[in-house]
């Protein structure tokens, strides 16, 4: 019984020891995964002991604690010297963690890393691709110019590595080397060209990123690889797809021929006959550059990507390159994917930010090409739960899309949006209503009534926006609107209910602008040349001058000066203006004082007996200290032109900034960001298509190893068919062939595709062949199994055989082997 107890105890100890890393036992605190994230000072002191231990298990434990501490934000740089020693550890797990640590702190501890430079060079030949890539990343992260030669040797060694992840690391290392030493560009370009010819789509994004950082202007380097990159576009990773679309878009604008219907001009409707409809599929690419059509066709499947960045990049590509009115590769194809992306962001990480950016891009496109989204006006209706940025972008886009057919519905929508609790959305809605009043005569009167009702609102921001829009309406000289004087008079009557500073200033400016009249004064104070309702506005302005805002005070002074020009002989007006200029002379704001002094000197010619400036006692000053008049005296007509001249009013605020490209982040934030590059204009001298012919497209596209030689029993087995989305609707040339005859990466030769039209035919053929093989096996007689003779297994040598006979026999055997291998390996050579 005691022996059995000792045996069970030994088993439990062994089990606990072997399963400690699997966290199956909870009796030990160190075996729990939560212990790694215990970054207290006591635990940090144990890390040094663990790293110096001879046991691989304890060193692995120490590295795990260090990586966990880094993830918690603790400073683990003090263990750098001890971690570097473990770079030569035989355990692959320890070395992985060591390289992860070194990649984080390599740039700040380059001197200590130089002590292990030989180890990093040795790891470049490690069997593990992860170790090879990490060692190269560490080498390129050492910012010491002395080892640039060693780094270049490592890049040249791994640029042809069989693993695509290692080649991807090489592409990232090229940019690091160029950043440190720009004079190494001539030696980096051959390596970059090798990576551009890589058959694996995994390296596409990193390679083109390195191209953009090293030599973004050397688009001529992409000539032999253009079609190769287009073929890899669908199979590349999402980050690589967005980078490739940007690079190829720049290449197409600089090297390819511009389509006749590309640009902002709407497509001209062309009536189609019966013959045109039958031949539409054959002629849809006529007149287009075949390489441009190839790029657009390869980029079309990316509209269905799950990554928003890829969808936006594809839309930007079609916006800048695609022709209009083309069903296969036209600009119209970008509309539905963008609307789908903008409306399907709920529940997604950063969904609000994605929706805001997408609607910003859509708004910029609508501003320049409204005909693209004219049929989808209902998609721009605002929902209450949407963010403010989305609402404003939708309203701006709707304002551009308003037409005579949709004017009534759009006005109802804008009127409803003015009830939104956000002031920004309300102001944008009021601007949209003003746009409809100026540009849609059928709803001008209804829109004007809406703006006038908004003057009675209790929200100051809404009243201010309405006044500003009514100001632009009054200055627009629209024939469908009433006389501007009547509109301004209605605004003046509502002055007491307007409290916003900019709105009150706009009313005072409009009163002065439309105060002149040719009718004789019958009512009011009887000022000649001035409308009868104007003196009361001046009285209200002067009465509350001390409580007005600065911008309103400036406009009140301007209003008084305009009235003095219109009615210079009115004594009451002269007294009011004298009192007003006295108040302005002692105002606290220096802008008001300067405006009063400027207007007083300007009105010197209007009142010949007085200069318009006042002394300390309020009396007019006729001369300066030297007894002479200063400055130039203008006549009344000249002063009227200065004060009451027409002012250009900007009615609509454009979406974004026109100096930045549509779809760029710089346009979204209205600021030039780092890395922004303007898209080149279409070239007038496109390059010859033969420059894009290369041997790369003629080689087999498969990236897998050469398949084994098929046995006779499996020679008739069907080959799997690779269905690539990039070849489903590829543009055909005049001869009926694709512009590129090669197959995409990982596909089979073309003659295999013709055998099976669809998946059902492939499965049916496979089942038929399996039944035939099974029937043949049933009919074949069963042969008894006998052991082979010993001579068949162990060769018996004849002692009397001569050397010449043995050489002849070996030559015959070699020739027979070569004859057998020739037909089998011929198809893969």
Automatic annotation (TrEMBL):
GO biological process, one term: intracellular protein transport
Compartments reported by the entry: Endomembrane system
Pfam families: Adaptin_N
Keyword tags: Membrane, Protein transport, Transport
Regions of compositional bias (Acidic residues) in chain numbering: 766-779, 796-819
Feature: compositional bias, Basic and acidic residues: 690-700
Region annotated Disordered, chain positions: 259-280, 679-829
Positions of the Clathrin/coatomer adaptor adaptin-like N-terminal domain: 44-604
Segments of skewed composition (Low complexity): 712-726
Domain of life: Eukaryota
Mitochondrion as UniProt keyword: no
GO cellular component: AP-3 adaptor complex; endomembrane system
PANTHER family: ADAPTOR COMPLEX SUBUNIT BETA FAMILY MEMBER
Similarity comment: Belongs to the adaptor complexes large subunit family.
This protein's name: AP-3 complex subunit beta
UniProt organism field: Saitozyma podzolica
């Amino acid at each position: 019984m005691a022996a059995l107890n000792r045996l069970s105890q030994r088993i439990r100890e062994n089990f606990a020891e072997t399963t400690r890393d699997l966290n199956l036992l909870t009796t030990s605190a160190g075996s729990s995964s939560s212990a790694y994230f215990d970054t207290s000072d006591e635990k940090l002191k144990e890390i040094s002991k663990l790293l110096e231990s001879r046991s691989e298990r304890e060193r692995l434990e120490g590295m795990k604690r260090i990586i966990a501490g880094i993830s918690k934000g603790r400073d683990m740089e003090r263990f750098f010297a001890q971690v570097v020693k473990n770079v030569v550890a035989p355990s692959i797990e320890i070395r992985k963690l060591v390289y992860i640590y070194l990649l984080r702190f390599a740039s700040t501890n380059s001197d200590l890393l130089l002590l292990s430079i030989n180890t990093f060079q040795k790891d470049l030949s490690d069997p593990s691709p992860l170790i090879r890539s990490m060692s190269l990343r560490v080498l390129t992260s050492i910012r010491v110019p002395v080892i640039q030669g060693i780094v270049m040797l490592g890049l040249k060694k791994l640029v042809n590595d069989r693993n695509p992840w290692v080649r991807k690391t090489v592409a990232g290392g090229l940019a690091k080397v160029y950043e440190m030493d720009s004079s190494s560009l001539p030696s980096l370009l051959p390596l970059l060209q090798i990576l551009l010819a890589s058959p694996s789509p995994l390296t596409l994004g990193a390679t083109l990123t390195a191209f953009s950082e090293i030599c973004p202007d050397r688009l001529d380097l992409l000539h032999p690889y253009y079609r190769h990159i287009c073929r890899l576009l669908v199979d590349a990773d999402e980050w690589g797809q967005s980078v490739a679309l940007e690079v190829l878009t720049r290449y197409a604008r600089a090297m390819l021929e511009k389509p006749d219907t590309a640009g902002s001009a709407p497509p001209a409707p062309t009536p189609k006959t019966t013959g045109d409809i039958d031949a539409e599929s054959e002629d849809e690419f006529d007149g287009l550059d075949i390489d441009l059509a190839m790029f657009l066709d390869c980029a079309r499947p990316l509209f269905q990507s799950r990554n928003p960045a890829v969808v936006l990049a594809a839309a930007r590509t079609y916006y800048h390159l695609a022709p209009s009115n083309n069903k296969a590769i036209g600009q119209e194809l970008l509309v539905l994917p963008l609307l789908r992306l903008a409306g399907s962001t709920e529940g997604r990480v950063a969904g609000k930010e994605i929706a805001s950016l997408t609607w910003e891009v859509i708004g910029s496109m609508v501003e320049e090409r409204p005909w693209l989204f004219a049929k989808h006006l209902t998609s721009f209706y605002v929902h209450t739960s949407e963010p403010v940025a989305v609402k404003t972008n939708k309203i701006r886009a709707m304002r551009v899309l308003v037409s005579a057919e949709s004017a009534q519905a759009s006005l109802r929508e804008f009127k409803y949006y003015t009830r939104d609790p956000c002031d920004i959305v309300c102001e944008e809605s009021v601007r949209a209503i003003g746009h409809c009043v100026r540009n849609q005569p059928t709803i001008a009167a209804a829109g004007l009534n809406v703006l006038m009702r908004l003057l009675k609102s209790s929200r100051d921001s809404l009243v201010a926006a309405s006044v500003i829009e009514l100001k632009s309406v009054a200055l627009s000289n629209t024939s469908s609107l009433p006389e501007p004087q009547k509109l301004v008079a209605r605004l003046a009557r509502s002055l007491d209910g307007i409290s916003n500073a900019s709105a009150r200033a706009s009313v005072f400016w409009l009163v002065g602008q439309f105060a002149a009249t040719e009718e004789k004064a019958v009512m009011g104070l009887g000022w000649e040349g001035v409308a009868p309702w104007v003196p009361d506005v001046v009285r209200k302005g002067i009465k509350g001058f001390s409580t007005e805002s600065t911008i309103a005070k400036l406009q009140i002074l301007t209003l008084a000066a305009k009235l003095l020009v219109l009615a210079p002989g009115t004594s009451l007006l002269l007294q009011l203006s004298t009192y007003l200029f006295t108040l302005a002379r002692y105002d606290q704001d220096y802008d008001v004082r300067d405006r009063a002094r400027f207007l007083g000197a300007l009105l010197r010619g209007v009142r010949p007996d007085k200069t318009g400036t006042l002394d300390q006692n309020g009396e007019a000053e006729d001369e300066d200290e030297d007894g002479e008049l200063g400055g130039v005296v203008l006549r009344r007509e000249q002063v009227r032109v200065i004060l009451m001249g027409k002012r250009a009013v900007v009615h609509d605020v454009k979406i974004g900034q026109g100096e930045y490209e549509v779809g760029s982040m710089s346009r979204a934030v209205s600021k030039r960001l780092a890395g922004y590059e303007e898209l080149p204009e279409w070239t007038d001298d496109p390059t010859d298509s033969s420059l894009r012919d290369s041997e790369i497209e003629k080689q087999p596209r498969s990236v897998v190893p050469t398949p084994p030689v098929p046995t006779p029993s499996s020679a008739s087995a069907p080959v799997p068919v690779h269905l690539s989305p990039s070849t489903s609707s590829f543009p055909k040339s005049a001869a009926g062939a694709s512009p590129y005859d090669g197959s995409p990466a990982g596909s089979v030769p073309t003659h295999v595709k013709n055998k099976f039209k669809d998946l059902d035919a492939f499965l049916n053929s496979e089942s038929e062949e399996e039944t035939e093989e099974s029937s043949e096996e049933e009919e074949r007689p069963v042969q008894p199994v006998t052991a082979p003779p010993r001579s068949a297994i162990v060769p018996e040598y004849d002692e009397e055989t001569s050397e010449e006979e043995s050489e002849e026999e070996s030559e015959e055997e070699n020739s027979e082997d070569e004859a057998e291998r020739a037909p089998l390996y011929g198809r893969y050579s």
